[in-house]
From TrEMBL:
InterPro entries registered for this protein in UniProt: Homeodomain-like_sf (IPR009057), HTH_AraC (IPR018060), HTH_AraC-typ_CS (IPR018062)
Annotated HTH araC/xylS-type domain residues: 173-270
Short name of any one Pfam family annotated for the protein: HTH_18
Native organism: Caballeronia udeis
Origin organism lineage: Bacteria, Pseudomonadati, Pseudomonadota, Betaproteobacteria, Burkholderiales
MF term (GO), any: DNA-binding transcription factor activity
Entry-linked Gene3D superfamilies: Homeodomain-like
Matches recorded under SUPFAM superfamilies: Homeodomain-like
Domain of life the protein comes from: Bacteria
UniProt-recorded name of the protein: AraC family transcriptional regulator
Length: 294
């Protein structure tokens, strides 16, 4: 799961018959805690939408157009019928919500990642009482899961997070691969040179294939890397700013706050305080906090 300047191509996965994240049509909407161990899990598309909330460890999610690195206190929405491939760390603990497609309000194309909000954390913890074996005519559970589905629009309205696009054309793939490992010095001129194309053509590739400008792409890549450095590697704000290409902490703080809605220090503080889902299943008291070693 480390950074690489190798080109990445998406290949359609085979359906993993032992996929612990799959929840078929006959089963009701539910929430469960999954500990998959170190694994590579493929799916050509599940019957239900799902939200994966990382409690511990790491997940790398790949879809047709890009990949996400999911750290503790972050979650990702995977739409129903969307093919994906998951790489899970040996210590991964994931709370998974399986939601029906019929009442989930979704506003994005493909998968989307976000921090786990306080409300989401409490709601997923409460919903753990309704696992796969719950009665499908439980009116309270059905209303609760409908509310979860409706809240997705609010929970995932943030800027695109933790995402690295693949690209379609060879030139764009080379530009992305180059930029990923040179965030401290990357410019569009250097990326175009590495891609073997002109700056003008590369700008067009970014807009046509990814629907974003070079500037927006670089910002998203820098912010995704910054989140990883501050939370997983516990780098200071100053160290992180320099690692991702900012010459001043003030400029980095402004960019990070605009992107996430929080300052770097408050984002890290919230991460350290919110790396668990309370276990309220079957009316039990709040679960013990799970300390993360990542």
């Amino acid at each position: 799961m480390k950074e690489s300047d190798e080109l990445i191509d998406w290949t359609m996965p085979d359906d993993d018959p032992d996929n612990p994240f799959r929840c078929g049509d006959p089963l009701p909407e539910c929430v469960e805690r999954v500990e998959p161990g170190k694994a590579v899990i493929g799916s050509r598309g599940d019957a239900k939408n799902k939200i994966l909330c990382v409690e511990q460890g790491r997940l790398k999610l790949e879809g047709p157009h890009g990949q996400w690195l999911l750290l503790p206190a972050h979650m990702v929405f995977i739409p129903h019928s969307r093919p994906y491939r998951l790489y899970t760390s040996a210590d991964a603990v994931v709370v998974v919500a399986h939601l029906g497609a019929q009442h989930t309000v979704w506003q994005h194309e493909g998968c989307w990642a976000a921090p786990v909000s306080g409300l989401a954390r409490e709601m997923f913890g409460y919903a753990l009482r309704w696992g796969r074996e719950r009665a499908d005519d439980d009116a309270v559970a059905n209303a609760y899961f409908q509310a979860l589905g409706l809240l997705c629009k609010d929970w995932f309205e943030c800027s695109r997070m933790m995402w690295i696009p693949f690209g379609e054309s060879p030139a764009l793939k080379r530009a992305i691969a180059y930029t990923r490992t040179r965030l401290d010095s990357a410019t569009i001129e250097l990326a175009a040179e590495a891609a073997g194309t002109s700056v003008r053509t590369l700008r067009r590739y970014f807009q046509d294939e990814l629907g974003m400008s070079w500037r927006r792409f670089l910002q998203e890549l820098r912010m995704a890397r910054a989140i990883e450095l501050m939370t997983r590697k516990r780098l200071s704000v100053t160290q992180t700013a320099l690692e991702v290409g900012f010459n001043s902490v003030a400029a980095f703080t402004l960019a990070f706050s605009s992107f996430t809605g929080k300052t770097p220090s408050s984002y890290t503080r919230d991460f350290l305080n919110e790396t668990f889902i309370p276990n309220n299943a079957m009316g039990s008291p709040m679960g013990s906090r799970i300390e993360s070693e990542v």
